[in-house]
Amino acid sequence: MAGLHRSPYHGFSVEFAEHRPYHTGDALRHVDWKVLARKDRLFVKQYEEETNLRHWVVLDTSASMRYQGAGPVTKLEYGATLAAALHYLMGHQRDATGLVAFDDTLHTLIPPRSTQGHLRGLLATLDRLVRATPERKAPAQTRAAAALHEVAERIPRRALVVVISDLYETDAGADDDAGVLRALRHLRHRGHEVLLFHLMDDATERRLDLPDLPVTLRDAETGQEVTLQPAQFREDYTAAVGAWTERLRRRCREMHVDLVELDTARPFADALASYLNKRGRLF
Predict the structure, then answer these.
(1) Are the C-beta atoms of residues 258 and 194 closer than 8 Å to each other?
(2) Which domain holds residue 5?
(3) CATH number for the domain including 64?
(4) CB-CB contact of 27 with 7 (8 Å)
(5) How far apart are CA 93 and CA 88, in angstroms?
(6) Structure confidence by residue, pLDDT tens digits, 67-81
(7) Are residues 116 and 13 part of one domain?
(8) Can you list the alpha helix ranges (DSSP code H) found in the chain?
């Protein structure tokens, strides 16, 4: 599990694991001088956190993620493909990578490992999640806040946690982002680095870019329907979405959570570049 990276935890709660012979280029700060005095040979200390990095991908699989909009794929297909690419990159770096998936409950939890067989299993699981049809009469709703709180409690060691979700919250109240933001703060409080990919179809979900004819909109999770003329509501709708998004950006900055807003009609390269930039800052 020796990843091709530097540790983000130098001098920070690292646990001594073992000695190994010194090799040209090793940092002198890790040389064990007491061993040198006894054996007249150079050894360096290895630390558990310096040789292992864990990633978790947390994927929202609720009914709202099956919305396609103007893009070529649904939000779930986009998110699962992004998750697969991240798992592949992590596996290529020989990093341990795991998967969590949730809707109204946390229904999938695969602990991180770094083997090729484990990677194939993760990809098969993602494919199954995309192809699965809900067995329940009621569609799977989003309870992202509860799922992220559970993730924070069940990940025992510091890790890079990548959350992929549209952040729709069935139990949202007046302060509709408070629950999710408290959960993200919980993850940060436990020492995890957090990268949040916020998926939306910009044309329809952000701008209400629909034909100016009476249309019936149905909530994918509650089944509630409303008939309206988009032109009459577009200005107020975009203002409300803009205010909510700006509040999310501000609060994520305050918590040092990396927020990446993704339009499902745009290429995956934007998301992958954001992930690689995050790794570059950490390592």
Answers:
(1) yes
(2) 1-51
(3) 3.40.50.410
(4) no
(5) 9
(6) 998 788 999 999 999
(7) no
(8) 33-39, 48-51, 75-92, 116-131, 144-154, 178-189, 230-255, 269-282
